[in-house]
Design brief:
Structural class: mainly alpha
Number of domains: 1
Helix content: over 70%
Order of helices and strands: HHHHHHHHHHHH
Number of strands: 0
């Protein structure tokens, strides 16, 4: 079965490289629905997988000056405490129980639906935000709203491992419409590293990380991301994103309904 995990990691890595959408949106539901991994183990393992893969991306973005560290700090000041509190709350639930499985599956389904919406309507959100970019109220509330967004992402990511990618980018596009796209993406990737690391280590303490599974996924995903990133310029974005959003809608609906 290890080679199947490696192959799955490679396929998800290629898609992430092509679209830029976080692996959690694909990897976690794949592990749950296709391989029958318990949702808690799938989430915990995927969080550490995301922390490792996005750390490399952060180094690249930082070297190119694509990270706005003030925005990253504001997000982290909300997300890190929220992640810690969420893991603490999960620690009171019976380990690997049906209740935990149900909570995580429904949360994962909702997160996937929100992610699909963020992919489909990202440009509309950005255009709407541009009309209010110079409003005094928009500028005054930008910092506390960024912290609040970080806190919401901290809860969602800790439960489902989904949200730090497409949802974080969509929120930043709305809050910072004049910030260049590359700096928004770089800042979001940089924020995802400490968030997924803290949440992943929390799940490890809860016994929800499979290290052998993590190694198999990384073995396939790292070359997959490299290949997908190099091929992204040759694949039309207008076809990729709607197809990906449709797939996430179907998967999210299945997880909520099961």
């Amino acid at each position: 079965m290890d080679w199947m995990f490696t192959l799955s990691g490679f396929i998800v890595g290629v898609i992430v490289g092509l679209t830029g959408v976080g692996g959690g949106s694909l990897m976690t539901p794949l592990l749950v629905l296709l391989f029958g991994i318990h949702p808690a183990t799938a989430v915990g393992t995927d969080l550490l997988y995301a922390a490792i893969t996005k750390a490399g991306g952060t180094v690249v973005h930082a070297r190119k000056g694509h990270v706005d560290w003030r925005v990253t700090r504001l997000l982290a000041s909300g997300s890190i405490p929220a992640a810690g509190l969420t893991i603490w709350a999960l620690s009171f639930l019976p380990k690997q129980s049906a209740a935990v499985s149900q909570i995580i599956s429904v949360s994962l389904g909702v997160a996937l639906l929100l992610t699909a919406g963020a992919i489909l309507f990202r440009r509309q959100l950005q255009q709407q935000a541009l009309t209010h970019a110079d409003d005094a109220a928009h500028n005054e509330w930008r910092a506390p709203l960024t912290v609040t967004v970080g806190a919401l992402l901290g809860v969602l990511v800790s439960i489902s491992s989904v949200g730090a990618g497409a949802l974080g980018v969509a929120a930043l596009f709305y809050l910072y419409p004049r910030l260049p796209t590359l700096r928004i993406i770089g800042s979001d990737v940089a924020h995802a590293v400490p968030l997924t690391l803290v949440a992943g280590l929390g799940h490890w303490l809860l016994g929800s990380v499979d290290w052998s599974l993590l190694g198999s996924l990384l073995l396939g995903s790292l070359p997959g991301i490299w290949l997908g990133s190099h091929a992204s310029a040759r694949v039309p974005d207008r076809f990729l994103r709607p197809a990906l959003a449709t797939m996430l809608l179907l998967i999210g609906g299945k997880l909520i309904a099961q």
